[in-house]
Structure formats: C-alpha cells, structure tokens
Design the sequence.
C-alpha cells in the first residue's frame, strides 16, 4: 500500500527529492507544462468556475472565500464532486454553515498538495487530505466514488471530477464536542480542554527581547482526561479506536454506584508504618504505638487547592474512574468484537488503552444504542455502562509484602519454581476446594513462573523471646465492604518432609472512621474477650489459634469489614498487623507451634467480587 501525506509549510529541495523518491510517482512534485488545452492554461479556480457540472462546488468556494486558495500558485490535487453527487440537503447544510466549516468539511476534504495523477501504476494508495483525513485513491475511483473525468490540468494543480462526495467524519476527539444526549461525559471531558502552541506547525519569526516570536502561530487543543486518564490519542488520524460513550442516563446510574466508594474526609489520622515507634515486643496486647500519631496526620485531600472539598474530591475521582476504560484500540485482537460488532466469547476479555482487561464485554454490545463512524474509528453510545465494579472502580487490594520499616532480621522472600511444585496438587487443594480459582490470578500470575511468599523465623527476631510480627500497609482502600483473607504457606512447600505445626496468631486492623477517629480492632470481629475459641489445639480467650490443614496452603478468613472513609489516592492507609502470641524462648512452644510465618498475601476482596465466585 502506498501512503501519501500532505505536508504543510515550506519545503526545501532536498526534502522534495526525498518525498518524491518514496511516492512511486516520477511526476509527484512536478507541475505539468501548460498544454494546448484551455484548462492547462487556467488556474484551478478558473476551471472550476467555468465548469457547468461544478456549480455547487463553485458556490461553496465563493461562500467560504476559498477562491483565493484555488487561484494561488501553490500546487494542489483536487477531487471535485459534480453537482449530482452533492445532495440538496447536504448542499443546503453547508451553505448555511460558516466559512470555517465549509473549508474543513468540504474543501479540505477533497484536496491535497502535490500532483497526484490517475495512472495504471495507481493501486491501493492512501492519501491524507488537507484536513488530515485518510482517503483511498485508486485507479478506479476516490473513496469508493468513480471518476467523471481525470487528470484535468491547471496552472496550479490537477483535478479529478468524481461521481460522489467524500463524506467528512470527525475524529473521536472532535466528536466529543458534537455529542447529543451525552452532556455529562461531554462536559466532564471538555472541562479539561487546554489550548497550546504547536511549535512544530508554527512558523518561527525573529527574536524580540530574547523571546521567540512566530510569523504564524498554530494553536491546538489537548485534553488531560483523554491523554492521561484514557491513555489515548483520539485526534490521531493514524490510529483506530472504539470509544464508548455513556448517555446521560447511563452516566448517572454508573456514577451513583461508583461514588459511594470515594467518601473523603477533611483530615485523616492513620498508623504510619514508615515511622515505627515501638518494637514487636510491645504488640502482645492492644497496639500501644497506634495511638493517634500526629506525624501521620494528613490532609485527606492531599492537595494545595484550598477550595477542594471532600465532595469535590469524590466527584473528581468518581468521574476519573468512569472514563478510564472507555477507549479500546483496534491493534489488540482482544477488541475485535467491538469493531466487527460480533459476539464476545464468554471467556473473552477486552483490553483498554489503560492496559486493563475487562470481562462482561458482551453486555457492552447489548447496551449499544448507536454506532457512529469516525475518521479514526467508531463511537458506541451506550444506555448502560455495564463494567464489573471489581475491574474498574472497586478493585481488590492485594499486598504480598510487609512495610519496609518492619522488615525485621530474618525476613526472606521465597520464589519456588512452578516446576518444583508439579505433581504436588495437594498443596493447593484446600484453597481450590473452598474458593475455586478466586486466588489463582495472584498466586500464579501469568507473567511469572514462580510461586512466591514471604517468611520470617522468630529465632531471628530481636532476642530469643521475640515474637515475629508482620505489618501490611493496605493501599487505595475504598469506602466499601471487603472480605479480608490471609493465605498462609506450610513449610512443606519448600521442605516436603517437614513436620506439621499450627500457628498461634493474632490479627489487628488499624483504620479510621469518618470522624477521623483511629480504631484498632481484633480480627475477625468476633474474636473478642468474651469469646472462647476451641480448636484441636486447645481453648483460647481473645486469641486465635490457627491450625489449618496439615501440609497445605490455608486461607485465614478474617471476615467482612466496611471502611467508612476512603483512602484511595491518599498517602494514608489502613494496616493489618499479624503476630504470634507465643514466646519461643521455651522449647515446648518451639516444638508445638510453627515459629515461622509464611504469607502468600493479604487480600481485601470486595464482597461483590467474592459473591460472583459463589453464584
């Protein structure tokens, strides 16, 4: 495929040579000599104005003051629709438009620079018109329209008359300003429009007072929502995207569901694990270093904008989460059904420009109420935004390492090659029996060939009587309900012959309520002083004895917990503290209980996500 761009600005002779060499046309940049025909000795404008088949084209050129361009010495190739190719409705619409619209949507749509002739060598060529749109230019026609006449010479160009009008399509960026009944997303995106000087397209002038001036300043618009949040270049005509556009009803429904996850408060005190103030020995009872740590007091909004209220922060983050996964590139095979309007397989997932995998995409097709073609893709208008919460605005929180301030001596990360675990399915059988594949994406990530966990041996903790302690900072927790799990790993993963011993554990959750009061809660909630837990290892008051299943990974279920205030995008975080409640200075305890804590991860899974696996 040949691919010919229009080039703006002045060109040097060397650049012209380079361009000509890649075009496959010997006459690409040469102006044909005037011949004996009257057309060859007239300008494009004179030839158009005198052609009885181009009266509509002539009228539109006059209305938009474009006759001056067509009379200029600059060389153009023009594809001119004959009168019968332009419907009366379209003609009336254009004549009622301003000059800029006529030039952009009609004149520039049918023009490019240089001498592009129809010849037998022409085959499957894409050209870029003056308005940056892409067109198919072939021996048989232009944009699928056949020729009425070809290679009509002029003093300043060549003209081909065509039996159809090339339809102008806005690109996806331009389409935002044209949206109807989608005002919510339109207003949100356009609020972040920013004009900037395009240095590459502008023509430099002289320096004045040490500052660069420009003879021709070209201003363009960019948008941080599109470029950063969506990670897309919706104005790029060389890319092909599918953009999902929720209508106002769909936006409101999705917004109301997502907003509850982002309930911010003005100030938030939290246990800052990066500023440890107590040793592990001080953690046997209720944590003493967890009192309102003023060094850890943060602005919940974390911004210099004094006018940003919790309500405005909630709105901003909610909108951000809603638009993050609305664009999909055609370059990913996963997105084929979006462009071809075919069904998704039940196990298929689409891949957004934010590099997120999204399932439930068949519902996107089902809720598409209209499809509009764009010059660089398509826009699907939806009456419902059916993304799954846990894939978008309510993601699981998974922590597989402890806070660095608590990396006590003896902490080790183990990476066990998966081939070493081959044939040892019983290690993971209990998790699969109880939870199916719910944890597999984290235990066996597709981009790793290792099974990983962390461990600490109490014998290496400060002093022989020390009790090992893990402290997990839980980032980006939303104001919603999570089911909290901890996965513990038996020594048999690395040493199949090791003796099975139970853990004697206690868990604390540090969190802040919506009145900025810090709390420390024993987990699970029912493990309080009035409850005695009896297991095969004995009875305990206010302690959790965890026995588990010998030789297998086990899930410690700490129950559900609802966080009243969000930590999303803040420096603040809740934390989970995990510790032994037995001293290992006595040999009897060392023989009876496992001294090492081995953890494959802490998992805060939204209840909707957990329920989806139980259905």
Sequence:
């Amino acid at each position: 495929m040949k691919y010919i761009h229009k080039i703006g600005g002045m060109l040097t002779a060397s650049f012209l040579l380079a361009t000509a060499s890649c075009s496959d046309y010997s006459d690409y940049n040469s102006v044909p000599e005037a011949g004996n025909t009257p057309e060859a000795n007239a300008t494009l404008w004179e030839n158009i104005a005198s052609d009885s088949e181009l009266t509509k084209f002539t009228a539109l050129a006059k209305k938009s003051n474009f006759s001056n361009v067509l009379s200029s010495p600059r060389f153009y190739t023009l594809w001119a629709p004959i009168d019968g190719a332009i419907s009366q409705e379209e003609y009336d619409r254009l004549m009622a438009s301003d000059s800029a619209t006529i030039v952009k949507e009609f004149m520039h749509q049918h023009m490019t620079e240089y001498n592009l002739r129809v010849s037998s060598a022409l085959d499957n060529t894409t050209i870029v018109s003056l308005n940056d749109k892409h067109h198919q230019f072939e021996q048989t026609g232009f944009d699928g329209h056949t020729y009425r006449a070809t290679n009509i010479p002029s003093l300043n160009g060549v003209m081909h008359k065509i039996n159809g009008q090339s339809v102008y399509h806005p690109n996806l960026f331009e389409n935002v300003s044209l949206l109807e009944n989608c005002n919510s997303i339109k207003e949100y995106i356009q609020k972040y429009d920013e004009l900037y000087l395009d240095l590459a397209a502008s023509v430099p002038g002289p320096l004045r007072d040490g500052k660069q001036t420009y003879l021709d300043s070209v201003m363009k618009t960019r948008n941080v929502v599109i470029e950063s949040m969506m990670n897309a270049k919706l104005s790029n005509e060389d890319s092909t995207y599918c953009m999902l556009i929720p209508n106002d009803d769909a936006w409101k429904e999705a917004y109301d569901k997502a907003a509850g996850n982002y309930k911010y408060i003005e100030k938030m005190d939290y246990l800052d694990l990066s500023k440890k103030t107590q040793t592990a020995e001080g953690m046997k009872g209720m944590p003493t270093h967890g009192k309102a740590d003023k060094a850890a007091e943060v602005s919940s909004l974390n911004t210099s904008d004094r006018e940003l209220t919790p309500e405005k922060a909630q709105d901003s983050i909610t909108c951000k989460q809603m638009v993050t996964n609305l664009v999909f590139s055609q370059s990913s095979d996963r997105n084929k059904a979006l462009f071809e309007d075919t069904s998704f397989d039940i196990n298929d997932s689409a891949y957004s420009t934010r590099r997120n995998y999204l399932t439930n995409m068949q519902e996107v097709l089902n809720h598409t109420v209209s499809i509009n073609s764009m010059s660089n893709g398509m826009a699907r208008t939806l009456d419902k935004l059916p993304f799954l919460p846990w894939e978008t605005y309510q993601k699981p929180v998974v922590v597989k390492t402890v806070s660095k301030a608590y990396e006590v001596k003896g902490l080790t990360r183990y990476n066990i090659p998966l081939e070493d675990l081959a044939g040892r399915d019983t290690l993971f059988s209990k998790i699969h029996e109880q939870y199916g594949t719910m944890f597999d994406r984290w235990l066996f990530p597709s981009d790793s060939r290792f099974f990983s966990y962390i461990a600490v041996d109490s014998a290496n903790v400060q002093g022989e009587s020390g009790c090992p302690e893990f402290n997990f900072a839980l980032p980006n927790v939303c104001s919603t309900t999570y089911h909290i799990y901890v996965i513990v790993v038996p020594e048999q993963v690395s040493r199949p012959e090791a003796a099975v011993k139970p853990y004697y554990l206690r868990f604390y959750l540090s969190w802040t309520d919506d009145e900025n009061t810090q709390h420390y809660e024993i987990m699970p909630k029912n493990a309080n002083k009035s409850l005695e837990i009896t297991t095969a290892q004995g009875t305990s008051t206010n302690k959790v004895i965890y026995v588990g299943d010998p030789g297998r990974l086990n899930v410690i279920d700490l129950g559900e917990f609802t966080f009243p205030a969000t930590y999303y995008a803040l420096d603040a975080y809740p934390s989970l503290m995990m510790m032994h409640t037995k001293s290992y200075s006595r040999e009897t305890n060392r023989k009876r209980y496992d001294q090492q804590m081995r953890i494959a991860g802490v998992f805060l899974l939204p209840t909707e996500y957990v329920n989806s696996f139980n259905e």
User: Anything to note?
Assistant: The chain has 17 helices and 33 strands. The first strand starts at residue 2 and ends at 4. The CA atoms of residues 93 and 102 lie 10 Å apart.
